[in-house]
Specification:
Chain A: Keywords: Cell membrane, Membrane, Transmembrane, Transmembrane helix, Transport. Chain A: It is found in: Cell membrane. Chain A: One of its GO terms (molecular function) is dipeptide transmembrane transporter activity. Chain A: Belongs to the binding-protein-dependent transport system permease family. The complex is a heterodimer. Chain A has 13 helices and no strands. In chain A, helix 5 runs antiparallel to helix 11, helix 7 packs across helix 9 and helix 12 packs antiparallel against helix 13. Chain A is globular, with a radius of gyration of 24 Å. The relative contact order of chain A is 0.14. Chain A is an all-alpha fold. Chain B starts with a helix and ends in a 6-residue tail after the last helix. Chain B is mainly alpha-helical. Chain B has a single domain, classed as MetI-like fold, CATH 1.10.3720.10. Chain B has ten helices and no strands. Classes of the chains: A mainly alpha, B mainly alpha.
């Protein structure tokens, strides 16, 4: 039964992926002027532009072009980056672990702060704790991520000097760990290289905090709302009447039920986080796919930008899928049809 | 006539009540007024020309230069104030476009249902399947790096939110008594939707607009921070923060901090306003 539900959910993701590919295809064709001119590069003459046009299939009708586009994508041919000269897919694959390490750590940090905050606010609605939570959360979402990052750099690097310079994943005094997963923290821990682990962790603190501050708001808000609903429901009243310990009621019963809607909002949070990721990577010179895309944008390197947009969209679809599956796993009542 | 008058009065009374009960909302309106004044009159009262470079470079804030000067000796205060108009124009333009587009799409999907609904809803889902800021980057990259395209991109990524609100509001009133009466009286479908059903969706839309404005300002500033849209030397908050970022590690904080704070102030204003407007239009808040 469970397996069938999971397969059904996987099938539901297919039209979304098709939609994403259609939109990226439209973006490819919407290039101002002639796409062939852009893909041929600045130094191209008339003949090589014509050649590029034929290789890209731009002289064929649109449906045909679309099929060819899809075939190339499936084969792993996402075009070549003009600025690095490498295949876009290889570039993205090499840089993806850096982005993922940062984003996932930031979300973990964000959940670790936001959920207790939301619970605290919900247990005493209308109190100063509640108001404090509301102000903190509204301020957090009003802060532009890039600005928070710069402020943190100023305070913790320039004024207090307790973090390393905000450039990249590892200070130059450390040696990169052998790449097993590409996540420096995990690789460092796996190889037992704690020196590198500490170095990588120090570099991660500021960018991860920056992103966490931005994603705090939706999680805390949702936790508060669903916690309030849970606390006013009958089973909690019964539990109270039965004289269970306050802690047991709060953590054991209310929070477990309140977490379900929070898991669903994580989808929206991911959308924010992946966008904020681009800005944070730019501020901290983080060698992930976000800063790759920013460099490509400045250099008008369209294949790289489109590859990035597509990769991010697919990543987002995959994350949403995982969230839904997790949701079904932790809540036995849920079927995918509802 | 008299009942309408009484209704107006009670609505005004309600607004007054909410404002008195919630001083934060009143503060938000005052902050909005201040921003509008800056946007309209800013360029004519700033002490320095925002584009004129001077010989006093990288000076910290002083009596003459309230927010200090940047690496070309330009007055940061003047630049921040003058930028208000451009940043507001971009976000208002984007929000207005998505308001109109979202209303039309939402009405079509909610009123006619069927194929219209299926096509429009799936189309909007496709947009929502992207991380929105990333999609905006892609759109600007594809259409070309100009301010207009930043507005279009911001409008596209915001449209689904409006369309969904309108679709839901229109859909629940499709079969309502007053709609059938209007139809029987000989109004065309288009007229019924536009004049009888759509106005009901306006209150939740206004809340959406206000909450969305803050996000639109952030988005536009974020895009120009990574070098899209507005180009230097035009004063704009995102660019100013980006330029100032290069000086932050050597301690010249005022270049990035003041534009950043101003940007934050604007976003904060709209977020507060959205919360306040929701209190005014949400019937559950009425007592």
């Amino acid at each position: 039964m469970r397996a069938r539900l999971i397969i059904a959910r996987l099938i539901q993701a297919i039209p979304v992926v098709i939609g994403v590919v259609v939109i990226t295809f439209i973006l490819t064709r919407a290039l101002p002027g002639d796409p062939a001119v852009y893909f041929a590069g600045d130094a191209a003459d008339e003949a090589s532009i014509q050649q590029v046009r034929e290789t890209l299939g731009l002289d064929k009708p649109l449906p045909h072009q679309f099929l060819q586009y899809v075939r190339d994508l499936v084969r792993g041919d996402w075009g070549n980056s003009l600025s690095t000269g490498q295949p876009v897919l290889a570039d993205l694959a090499r840089r993806l672990p850096a982005s993922l390490e940062l984003t996932l750590l930031a979300l973990l940090l964000s959940c670790a702060i936001a959920i207790p905050l939301g619970v605290m606010a919900a247990t005493s609605p209308g109190s100063w704790k509640d108001h404090l939570c509301r102000v903190l959360v509204t301020a957090g979402v009003s802060l532009p991520t890039f600005f928070t990052g710069i402020l943190l750099v100023y305070v913790f690097y320039y004024l207090l000097d307790i973090v390393p310079s905000p450039l990249g994943r590892l200070d130059f005094i450390y040696i990169e760990p052998d790449s097993i997963t590409g996540f420096y923290l995990i690789d460092g821990a796996l190889t037992g290289d704690w020196e590198t682990f500490r170095g990588a962790a120090k570099q991660l603190v500021l960018p991860a905090t920056t992103m966490a501050i931005f994603t705090l708001a939706p999680i805390a808000r949702m936790t508060r709302a669903s916690m309030l609903t849970a606390l006013s429901s009958d089973f909690i009243r019964t539990a109270r009447a039965a004289g269970l310990a306050r802690r047991k009621i709060l953590m054991g019963y209310a929070l477990r039920n309140a977490l379900l809607p929070v898991v669903t909002t994580l989808g929206m949070v991911f959308s924010f986080a992946l966008g904020a990721n681009v800005l944070v990577e730019k501020v901290f010179a983080w060698p992930g796919i976000g800063s790759y895309a920013v460099d490509a944008l400045v250099a008008s390197d369209y294949a790289a930008v489109q590859g990035f947009v597509l990769a991010m969209a697919l990543l987002f679809v995959a994350l949403n899928l995982i969230i839904d599956l997790v949701y079904a796993l932790i809540d036995p009542r849920i079927g995918f049809d509802s | 006539m008299t009942t309408e008058h009484a209704q107006n009065q009670s609505f005004a009374g309600h607004v007054g009540y909410v404002l008195r009960a919630n001083p934060v909302t009143m503060l938000a309106f005052a902050m909005l007024g201040f921003l509008i004044i800056c946007a309209i009159f800013g360029p004519s009262f700033v002490p320095f020309d925002p584009l004129a470079s001077g010989d006093q470079i990288l000076q910290p804030p002083s009596w003459a230069h309230w927010f200090g000067t940047d690496h070309l000796g330009r007055d940061v205060f003047s630049r921040v104030i003058v930028a208000t108009r451009l940043d507001m124009a971009i976000s208002i333009g984007a929000v207005a476009l998505s308001f109109v587009a979202g209303s039309i799409l939402g009405c079509a999907a909610g009123f006619w249902g069927g194929w219209w609904d299926a096509v429009i809803s799936r189309g909007l889902d496709m947009i929502m399947a992207f991380p929105l800021f990333v999609l905006a980057m892609g759109i600007v990259a594809a259409l070309g790096n100009t301010v207009e395209n930043v507005i279009y991109a911001t409008a596209v990524i915001n449209t689904p939110f409006y369309a969904r609100v309108v679709r839901a509001e229109v859909n629940i009133r499709r079969e309502a008594g007053f709609v059938q009466a209007a139809k029987l009286a000989g109004n065309s479908d288009l007229r019924v939707v536009a004049l009888h059903i759509f106005p009901n969706a306006l209150p939740p839309m206004m809340v959406q607009v206000s909450l969305n404005m803050g996000w639109a300002v952030l988005n536009a500033a974020g895009l120009s921070f990574i070098g899209l849209g507005v180009r230097p030397p035009t004063p704009e908050w995102g660019i100013m923060v980006a330029e100032g970022a290069n000086y932050i590690i050597s301690g010249e904080w005022w270049l990035a901090v003041f534009p950043g704070l101003w940007l934050m102030f604007a976003v904060f204003t709209f977020n507060l306003l959205g919360d306040g407007l929701r209190d005014i239009v949400d019937p559950r808040q009425r007592r």
